[in-house]
Write a structure and sequence with these properties.
metal-binding; FTHF_cligase-like_sf; two-stranded antiparallel ribbon; 179 residues; alpha/beta; EC 6.3.3.2; single chain; Rossmann fold; eight-stranded mixed beta sheet
Length: 179
Amino acid sequence: MQKRAQITIKQQAIWDDLLLIKVQQLPMPPLHAVFSYAAIERRKEISTDAILSYLEFRNPGMRIAYPVYDARSSAMEAVWVDEETLFRVNEFGISEPLNGVVAQPRELDLIFVPLLCFDERGYRVGYGKGVYDRYLKEVRPDALLVGLSYFEPVPLIADTDKFDVPLNYCITPQGIYEF
């Protein structure tokens, strides 16, 4: 988070463009359903907006879902959105759809997984609650799990456990990592 905080607006804009170019180089099957996240701007999370626009152009009719987090159960659902969907900011500063139909995990072809850092094996550090790892256990085995990072991988995240789900790819402005 400290490294992200030091990124300038100009660097972020350049890196976002480079990330989009790398996503365009990623071999992907036709996509019908994508699960993304709403970036937290104050944390300088990578926005998926331009990437999703590109994917919608390449995959007409593709549906997009965003997470809704239930703090009481510490569980997450994916909710389908469209241009009419209203969002609200939850108690953690994350934009969530206010309404919509819940997407079943097995419907999803591609999931953009937020992260703070990742390692050379495809494991990631998130925000520490294991919400995404629990959700990702429910998606199809052939669904693509993709992380986006402004920074290159660390060699090893030492505190992974059997509940952690590795990514298939992580994309940085410099390259595409396949796991």
